Amino acid sequence: MHPMVAAFLDSATSSYSYVVAEPGSRTCAVIDPVLDFDPATGITSTTGADRIIDFVRANDLIVEWLLETHVHADHLSAGHYLKSHFVCAQTGIGRGVIEVQETFADSVPRCPDSPLVPDGHQFDRLLDAGEKLCLGHACGRVLALPGHTPACVGYQFDDFILVGDTLFMPDYGTARCDFPGGDSATLYRSIQQLFAEPDETKLLMCHDYAPGGRSHRYLSTVAEQRAHNIHIRDGVSEAEFVAFRNTRDGTLSAPALMTVAVPYNLTAGQLDTADLSLLHKRMAA
Questions:
Q1: 105 versus 27: which is more confidently predicted?
Q2: Is the pLDDT at 110 greater than 80, yes or no?
Q3: DSSP single-letter state for residue 207
Q4: Which of 170, 193, 203, 212 could form a disulfide linkage to 228, CB 3.0–4.6 angstroms apart?
């Protein structure tokens, strides 16, 4: 059976979360769920994640996976909250998260006798490139898509790929590469891996910023991206892309929630209220 896909937009961060389900077995994966966060007060809420819970229950689904495409810098993950509702679900992220944890370990507010251990144990599963992810009779696979961060992965099921922050819609281009461990040449090669898929392959975005005020979109195709992506369409060489991406990244400011989101997401959301409050104070300083 072909998996079904439901998309959920978080308008505050222009982020998309997904539920991918195999109808026969009713098993599903939740990918890149967003925890609401008020930057003015530092208070979290679960409105967006509760929409996913309501959808899962309304469709009598069984959540087997809570997956992240990477350590997000612009929003907090709701994976830990959803795990409290779907206790049998496994949290998963690319094995490269260990490198990101090593880089940012000092940013996580832990007491001296309980520092962040950068070994990925905070997640139930560390996923390798090529690894199978099965939902009932539908088996997908993990794609390594580094460049935006060293830990970026995509998830391919049937004829669609959830690409994380690797690509945006064609009128917005590609992800930045100036975070620690990011690399524009590596991103170029990751995107070429996606472009080698059949033209009709569907690409599901992690973000859409709707430039020009158009309606939000989450679905593109390999053919559309190769023909129209403003940064990396067919004919753009690696050298041209690297020069463009590095120049553009030099003009970008850090994501507004980065000092909160990265430490929180590195721990798979396992920070208490006091830790989150401290991160909010750092952000406001």
A1: 27
A2: no
A3: B
A4: 170
